[in-house]
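During data preparation, a discrete fold description was generated, and the record follows.
___
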Amino acid sequence: MGATHVTVRISNPANKKKYWEHLFLVDTGAIDCLVPRDNLEKIGLFPKGQRTYELADGSEIKMNITTADIEFMGEITGGTIIFGEPGTEPILGVTALESVGIDVDPRSQTLKRMPATRLKKLMPKKIKL
């Protein structure tokens, strides 16, 4: 299968004029997005915490994270951004995709809009006594 890429803009929520835009690899195996550290710092984003991630080889690594606005394909969402090493390929994770109703077509390796964003029932089932 081929790789899917999309142009993504990462913006500082406190100052929308500060952003970084680049071609991101769409990775449905990744939960969160990843951006090279130097690009995040240039737009005024710094670590807010750390999270442990499992790598493809099964090993675990603790990485710095922050939150930012994520814009792609005319949609915007907020999400967790992992601080990657400088020069690392940026990754668009599945949480950002699903939160705006975009899915990857496994046959064509293209992004497609879902007819509606998935949402579970809003009201609990009524139990009959």
Q: What stands out?
A: The helical segments are 37-42, 94-99. Residues 5-113 form a domain with the Cathepsin D, subunit A; domain 1 fold (CATH 2.40.70.10). The beta strands are 5-12, 15-27, 33-36, 49-54, 60-72, 75-84, 91-93, 102-105, 110-113. The chain is about 10% helix and 50% strand.
